Amino acid sequence: RSALFDRRKDIKVVGLVGALCGRNLSVEQFEEMIDRGREIAEKGSEEIFETIGIRG
Fold first, then answer.
1. Is the CB of residue 8 less than 8 Å from the CB of residue 41?
2. What is d(CA 24, CA 18) in angstroms, rounded to the nearest whole number?
3. 54 touches 17 (CB < 8 A)
4. Helix, strand or coil, per DSSP, at residue 21
5. Per residue in 4-33, is it b (16+ CB within 10 Å) or e — as a string?
6. Distance of alpha carbon 29 from alpha carbon 10, whole angstroms
7. Sign of torsion, CA 14 11 45 26?
8. Counting Cβ atoms within 10 Å, is residue 3 exposed (0-12), middle (13-18) or buried (19+)?
9. Is the whole-model pTM more than 0.85?
10. What is the DSSP track for 34-53?
């Protein structure tokens, strides 16, 4: 995010966070993360970050 700060003003960055605290992402969850990234790139998101495969 900070690396892009001085570039274009309209660049949006959303972090996708997965596999915290020693948990592993399954292949399906990894594919879900890729698909979600593509969806965000096309449609946008109001979130700063999203989680995948995290308990709670």
1. no
2. 8
3. yes
4. coil
5. eeeeeeeeeebeeebbeeeeeeeeeeeebb
6. 29
7. negative
8. exposed
9. no
10. HHHHHHHHHH--S-SEEEES
Tokens of 37: 């990234």
- Cross-strand bridge partners of residue 17: 51
Torsion, Cα 28 29 35 39, to 10 degrees, reads 150
Q: Which residues are paired to 51 by β-bridges?
A: 17
The predicted pLDDT at position 28 comes to: 92
Per-residue model confidence as pLDDT tens digits over 1-56: 566 666 666 677 778 888 777 778 889 999 998 998 889 888 988 888 888 877 76
